[in-house]
Amino acid sequence: MARPSPGTPLHPVGGRRRGRTPVYFFVEGETEEDYVRHLGALTTEFQFFVQLRHTDRERLVDEAINLRRNEVRKAAERRQSDNGPRAWCLFDYDGDGRVDGLFRRAVKDGVRIGFSHPCLELWWLLHFQIVTGRPDSETIKKKLRGLSSTNAFHGLSKNKRLTRSRWEALEGRYVTARTNAEKLVSQCECPCSPPHHDDGCVPSKRNPSCNLAALVDSLKITY
Q1: pLDDT tens column, 193-208
Q2: What stretches of the chain adopt beta strand conformation (E)?
Q3: Residue 21 three-state SS
Q4: Which of 13, 120, 150, 152 is surrounded by the fewest CB atoms within 10 Å?
Q5: Confidence class of residue 4 from pLDDT cuts 50, 70 and 90?
Q6: Strand ranges inside 33-192, DSSP E
Q7: Domain ranges of the chain
């Protein structure tokens, strides 16, 4: 997929007009950006902006908060009632001790976080099977490479991108992925109640977990 400069809206699909509701994405890597762009091809209700791609999770949250604050301020100056644009940060845990604090800051300013623990590949695997125990990133990737239903992930160790063939392997499996992700809540180290993590849950203790279904559902998308 072509990658326009940051902040450039995704092109409409098939010449159709997009809605005017903006959704801004601040993503950790190319794979997260790939996923956003595949989702963008499934809706015309929202205008997607991949605003920033950066490996520093704190910078992603800072930029998302600043964007929302600026837009809310502009709305106030125009004397318009505006809760600000939708802003999502997408990143995984990767042992980053700042994650819990970043969640608290983001929630306070209305920024949503699409979070995978331990890695984004967990979300792909949940499209195919239930995950039990606490597998590490390498185990998850090995399971993906060994799937009998598709060979799309065989080269995952060399290429992490969500290619067209990998996206096609995920299509038609979203409901399964969401259901399997909800089942992981029972494994959380915090006293959470499935199918959702409680408000007081500590994100770093959600191992394994992935809440990307919240993003997809907020966009009224299925695949």
Answers
A1: 889 999 899 999 999 9
A2: 21-27, 46-53, 86-92, 112-117, 209-210
A3: strand
A4: 13
A5: very low
A6: 46-53, 86-92, 112-117
A7: 13-218
